[in-house]
Structures are given as structure tokens and as C-alpha cells.
Amino acid sequence: MLVPPEMMAAQSKLVYQMNKYYNERVANRKAQIAKTIHEVCRIVQDVLKEVELQEPRFISSLTDYNGRFDGLEVVSPHEFEIVIYLNQMGVLNFVDDGSLPGCAVLKLSDGRKRSMSLWVEFITASGYLSARKIRSRFQTLVAQACDKCSYRDCVKMIAETTEVKLRIRERYIVQITPAFKCAGLWPRSAAHWPLPAIPWPHPNIVAEVKTEGFDLLSKECLALQGKNSAMEGDAWVLSFFEAENRLLQGGCRRKCLSVLKTIRDRHLDLPGNPVTCYHMKTLLLYECEKHPREHEWDEGALGDRINGIFLQLISSLQCRRCPHYFLPHVDLFKGKSPTALENAAKQVWRLTREMLTNSRAFEKL
């Protein structure tokens, strides 16, 4: 197919703009965050060392692999979540019957094995391992550790929440979430994935992702609030953090995510936090399905993919619904105020219009 020279020129101009944006704005954000992570993790490791001394069952899994930390997620440049993997699910069965959207429970496989569990005192009379009870115990230990650790002058527990949240140097917020890794399992509520009609991802990657499994996190679940309060405290939140990262390898997908996060931090950090980096990651995964061929993720297509994701974002904000990629019955906008979503839709539309009509838009973004 012959492409008119002016289209070629516009395309190469956009590629140049994107690369410049990536090498300056995105690289700057990454360098800043890497520095923050290093500082924050040093303090959190010290706190967790104290926790481990008091309670050996909570062993810190926060390990530095050449500047990368296992289980660390950047929520924003000032907010982080660190997942601490607990040992030995052992005598517990994973139960995911769809009654708790976005969540599952861990139940004793046999009532007689209660005493064999490492977490015996957190198992309810009905035989469920309570996510909230474990978190409550962990919260008490972390609060005590903050007072004892060598960084006690610059780390404080955030009160009025059941989450384990620290404020570090009055600038950063770190949530520490106890979790279980479920390798070799795949939840029934995500059994529909991948969609049969879509040629992405490749079957080998699907097999890899399903073998890697998912995590069960002990944290508040928005999808459950007000639904079934009896089970709410026992339920564990399903997380596909590793699976999502695996799917975004190859082509310019990771680069695309970094650009989206940078635009989000610079222009969409709005009151009520309607648009998060996780929304961007989710829409990027849907964009991968819409453009399943590898050549559609070449460097030259990056601008088109970003425009596509922003158009998806406008539509989601206007419909006030953003389905989770693996669990589409879970709405990631649940709990966000309609006004915040409406204001975000207007702002995203302004940005999108600028990107679609101005070949030099990225100089200003």
C-alpha cells in the first residue's frame, strides 16, 4: 500500500515527538521514582525486620534485585504498595464461587486439621482464614515496629484505616499488604480468559501466565462494601499484578505504559483520584486485545496506541464503568464520585483533542 509523503512525514514527526517525550519527561519520572523507591524501601525493610523479631510468621519478602523490589507497586510518584508474601497456605483450600466479586476465601480443607495451620488463631469458627484478622495483627506489629526501628523519627502509622499504611518523611505513603501467592492455580471467576475469538496473547504466554497464578491480598475490597458484611472481613482480594506485567512484555507495550503513567501524573492527578495508573494499565491490556498483532506494537505505532487508549478512557469515564481486565464483573470506578469522573472525562477529552489535532502536542504534555 502506498502511503502519501505528507502522512509519512506526519508519522515520523510523531515518532520523533514520542521518543523525545520518553527520553525526557518519562525518563525523568522514572529516575525520580527509582530514587524514592530506594529511600522508602530502606525504611520499610527496617520496620519489617522489627516485625519479624516480634513475630517470625511475618517474614519480609521485600528483597532488592538490582534496584527492583519483588512485590512493590508504584501507585503514584508519592504512593506505593508493598506486598509481603506469607508462608504456608498448607491445609487451606482456595474457594472462588463468584459470590464475592473480585475476592475469594481460604477455607480449612478439613476441620480436624485446624491445629496444623500456621495461622490457627486467625481461622474463624466456620473454618475460614480471616484476611482482616491477619491484617489487624500485622497492623499492631507494624505500629510497634515504627516506634522501635532506627527510622522512628521519619515514619508514622496512618490511623483511621484498617489498612497498614505508613507516612514516610511526611512526603510518601506506603501501604504494606499481607498476601498469599497462588502459583499453579487459576480462579474460576477469570476462567473466561483469554477470549477465544481474539488471537492475543499467544497460547504459550497464556499457559505461562496461568502457571504463574495470582495473589490473594488482605486489603479492603470496594466491590464487597455493603454486600455481605459477614464474609467481607474473611475475604481476600484477587490480584493479577504479575500476570498483567507478563502480558505487557514485547513490542512497545511497556514504553506505552510508562508514557501513559507520565501523562496521568502530570495532567490527570485530579480531585477524588478518578484516574489511576491502574486504570491506564487496564485499558492498555484491552488495547492489546484490539490490536493483537505484534507489528501493531512497533515504535512507529506508539502514538496511535496512546490515542486509542485515551479514547477508551473518555468512553469509560462517560459510562462511569471501567471493567477489571481479568474480572470484568468488577468495576474499577466503584466508589468514585460521579462529579470526579465527569470532570476527568472533560480533562481527558481536552488532552485527546490536543494529541489528535496538534502534531507537536507532546512538547506541551
UniProtKB/TrEMBL annotation:
Domain Mab-21-like HhH/H2TH-like: 252-350
InterPro entries referenced in this protein's UniProt entry, alphabetically: Mab-21-like_nuc_Trfase, Mab-21_HhH/H2TH-like, MAB21L/cGLR
Residues in Mab-21-like nucleotidyltransferase domain copies: 69-250
Gene3D superfamilies attached to this UniProt entry: 1.10.1410.40, 3.30.460.90
Highest taxon of the lineage: Eukaryota
Pfam families in UniProt: Mab-21, Mab-21_C
Family, per entry: Belongs to the mab-21 family.
Name of the protein described by the UniProt record: Protein mab-21
Protein encoded by which gene: LOC106120700
